[in-house]
Amino acid sequence: MGGLKGLSEREIREAIRNDFWVVIKAGLRLWPLVSLVLFTLVPVKNRLLVGNLVGVGWGIYLSLVAAAG
């Protein structure tokens, strides 16, 4: 994304250093919890829908992080 925004290599590396671990930590908090809820509380016929809705929310979060950086 940084290359498309016209950022220098140094700016891209700095953005990765600042945002990468934030996103990884958020994903490691979110997805195990989602899996636990899906497999224990959500009926089989609704698991795909619930998982996809959470995925849309995750995509929005990633977009917001990318736009802020």
Rounded average pLDDT: 90
Roughly how many Å is the radius of gyration? 16 Å
Largest sheet: none
Count of β-strands = 0
Structural class: mainly alpha
Distance between the termini: 10 Å
Relative strand content: under 5%
Poorly predicted runs of 5 or more residues: none
Give the helix proportion (percent range): over 70%
String of helices and strands: HH
Task: Indicate the overall shape.
Answer: elongated
Count of helical regions: 2
Topology readout:
Elements: H1 9-40, H2 44-68
Helix pairs in contact: 1-2
Q: What does this protein structure show overall?
A:
Helix content is about 85%, strand content about 0%. It has helices at about 10-40, 45-69. The longest helix is centred in the middle third of the chain and has 32 residues, at about 10-40. The model has no long low-confidence stretch (mean pLDDT about 90).
